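In the design runs reported in the main text, the only information available to the sequence generator was the tokenized backbone. The following block is the verbatim input for one such run; it is reproduced so that readers can re-run the procedure and compare outputs position by position.
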């Protein structure tokens, strides 16, 4: 009687540990999901740094466009197809 009771308790405990490990590893908030979220977080961090670099480059371009008349003339010539008197304009398509 005592041996069967101990045996049943040990089986129950082993089953409980197995269920705990399965939930810990593969549950809704388990280790599997946490690793996936950590990888996604690292990718988003890299995207964020790339976007910050791009923003800084664009800010320097805007500042150059506002202060340097060369950039204004370049934009007028390239995008608006404007030219000075006696200039020959060639459009390459």
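Verbatim output:
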């Amino acid at each position: 009687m005592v041996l069967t009771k101990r045996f049943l308790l040990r089986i129950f405990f082993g089953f409980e540990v197995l269920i705990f490990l399965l939930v810990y590893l593969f549950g809704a908030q388990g280790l599997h999901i946490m690793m996936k979220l950590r990888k996604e977080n690292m990718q988003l961090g890299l995207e964020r740094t790339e976007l910050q670099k791009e923003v800084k480059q664009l800010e320097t371009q805007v500042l150059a466009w506002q202060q340097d008349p060369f950039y204004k003339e370049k934009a007028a010539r390239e995008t608006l197809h404007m030219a000075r008197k006696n200039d020959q304009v060639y459009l390459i398509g």
